[in-house]
Amino acid sequence: MKIIGDILATTRDDLQDEDGATVTYLIRKANISHSRISRILKTLVSHGLLEQVEDQGSNKYKISQTGREFLQAYYTFTNFADDFGLSI
Q1: Residue 27 CB burial class (10 angstroms; 0-12, 13-18, ≥19)
Q2: Angle, in degrees to the nearest 10, between helices 2-13 and 65-83
Q3: Which residue from 10, 27, 42, 50 puts its CA 20 to 30 A from 66's CA?
């Protein structure tokens, strides 16, 4: 769940290119393998949390409105858990 939160936050906050984040950039930020992030990105796109945009023959990813709402709920939940001393 933390990796998903990190990917969504990265596509929302850390981009210098407003067209979206490349897979390579997300791999570096999440520090996971290409095959694993590919599966995660496919899931996030299929659930409408990320938008996949083709740019000059490569795919880039941007957070959707649904992804923003999910990320806000994720932060609310993690803060709630932290208040009770639970680590997520």
Answers
A1: middle
A2: 130
A3: 27
Q: Give me the domains of the chain, ranges plus CATH numbers.
A: 2-78 (1.10.10.10)
Amino acid at 33: S
State the Cα–Cα distance between residues 11 and 16, nearest whole angstrom: 10
Task: Evaluate if residue 40 carries a pLDDT over 70.
Answer: yes
DSSP letters, 31-82, are: T--HHHHHHHHHHHHHTTSEEEEEETTEEEEEE-HHHHHHHHHHHHHHHHHH
- Name the strands in the sheet holding 58-63, side by side, starting at the edge strand that comes first in the sequence: 21-22, 58-63, 50-55
